[in-house]
Description:
The protein is of the alpha/beta class. It has two domains: 3-19 and 242-428, Alpha-beta prism (UDP-n-acetylglucosamine1-carboxyvinyl-transferase, Chain), CATH 3.65.10; 22-239, Alpha-beta prism (UDP-n-acetylglucosamine1-carboxyvinyl-transferase, Chain). It has 14 helices and 24 strands. α4 (108-115) packs parallel to α6 (175-186). The chain is elongated and about 65 Å long. 54% of the residues are buried. The structure holds uridine-diphosphate-N-acetylglucosamine. Uridine-diphosphate-N-acetylglucosamine (UD1) is lined by residues 23, 26, 102-103, 129, 131-136, 172, 174-177, 202, 316-317, 339-340.
Amino acid sequence: MDRIRIVGGNALNGIIPISGAKNAALPLMIASLLTSDTLTLENVPHLADVEGLIRILGNHGVDIAVNGRREHQDGSYSRTVHFTCRTVADTTAPYELVSKMRASFWVIGPLLAREGQARVSLPGGCAIGTRPVDLFIEGLTALGAEMEIDGGYINAKAPKGGLIGARYTFPKVSVGATHVMLMAASLARGTTVIGNAAREPEVVDLANCLNAMGAKISGAGTSTITIEGVTSLSGARHRVLPDRIETGTYAMAVAMTGGDVTLSGTDISLLDTAIEAIRRAGAEVSAVEGGIRVIGHGDAIRPVDIVTEPFPGFPTDLQAQFMGLMTRANGISHVTETIFENRFMHVQELARLGAKITLSGQTARIEGVTRLRGAPVMATDLRASVSLVIGGLAAEGETMVSRVYHLDRGFERLEEKLTRCGAIVERISD
Ligand code: UD1
């Protein structure tokens, strides 16, 4: 199993190219199940989760062709991938595949809409809380589907003639359930109005792509989305939006180590709340042509309290990284997690680097220390693992992060991007 070795202490200086968003690429890829034409996606990141979903879609009958594996001048790989599902080969998504990645459960929406039925294993994914699927069941039931849980699987069946548009308001905001409703309702008969929809930029990206395929969706990015069903969707060409979580992660890394880095190919407006928190912590962040410039001052980190919330609030996917930054603040800060239970697994690993963190319910109290010291640590989930990298970059001496397969799920060529900016980071393959 690969490990990552970091020798901390160097400031980061240079350019870091930001990849296409994993959390946009996954639902966009799944949308290819809705049409027999080719959906072409540009700026698809090369990540373990994307490769995993390619395998899963292949199982459903999607033909996949990849091109554009050329290295760009700025050092990023931009892949263009063509997805064609002439006919759905299988409406079952088996446990062996779905258990590895929670988002693959979302195939339930397009399979049900296009084929009238789906049998999908209950999901797995990151071990952050129980992550139920009740909202998916309620939403699809509102569209007329019969939903039944049997032996670890959900059997979903559309009424004769297909799903039927309806009004449905989510009792809780869910990104995944919003994606699934957009896809399912696009091919339903009549109009669907979703209340309390997720407003994340990735939802807007999916709606834009579906509209390019012929769907009639309005209001994405607000909490009420209206979808007028159409009888079929066509192919389209769509560019995956930049990864705001990767953007925020590197911005926090620079705030932590000090230095001057331009994050290219990204957009500051995707993460206003996080940028505001990074600024309050003392880093200078500004929009520049084609990206964002971050100037960090290393030791002069100020304590900032944050609370995770659905978009446009502070993203839960940046919570661990921000806590990493706060471990070296000049004072006490609080980080409150409201989206997922059990998303504090990084706390005990950060403590191994010398961080002083105490937990009380869903709030962590972080007493900043003047220095962290390198140590062996273990990645526990995708975002937690990168907070250890941020800690390691600022720690004195060597940090060895094990179980980096978590990182590979969501960060494209992390060690290369950091090394180019002066960090000492290397992958060790055992
Ligand atoms: C997506 C992101 C993930 C991010 C999360 C919240 C992808 C691939 N993943 O995950 O990185 O951390 O949004 O921004 O885009 N819930 C229920 N019942 C349901 C569904 C969800 O109670 O049926 C709960 C979850 O347990 C959680 C909350 O709703 O507490 C939000 O989850 P959700 O927005 O659905 O997260 P994902 O879409 O899985």
